[in-house]
Amino acid sequence: MAAAVTVAALSVLEDEKLAENAERLGEIFRERMRAIQQKTTLIETVRGKGLLNAIVIATDEESPLAWQICLKLKERGLLCKQTHGNKIRFAPPLVITESQIHEACDLIEEVILGIKS
Prior knowledge:
Blueprint: H1 2-15, H2 18-37, E1 43-49, E2 52-57, H3 65-75, E3 81-83, E4 87-90, H4 98-113
Antiparallel strand pairs: 1-2, 2-4, 3-4
Helix pairs in contact: 2-4
InterPro entries: Aminotrans_3, Class-III_PLP-dep_AT, PyrdxlP-dep_Trfase, PyrdxlP-dep_Trfase_small
Pfam family, one: Aminotran_3
GO molecular function: identical protein binding; ornithine aminotransferase activity; pyridoxal phosphate binding
């Protein structure tokens, strides 16, 4: 039974091209984050692979700023995770759409640019 479930899950990954979609949408996300980075000194680094991405906030690891950004994003309906003090990790589901990626990036941009750097 477990083998059948595994085969079915792999078929969905393949049939719906979820890996290819994750790579494409992840690149869109990183491009959008780099564009925001050009508008503010708050984003130090943009990094990621596929849909697993992070931005590094230009503060020391003890600063509460990354956490405060996460809370503001949560208030707007976007969940993310602050890690290692000044990093914010984004890990949307594999089934996210391109329009949802842009919507998330719009929210991130509004919150980040709304903070005085």
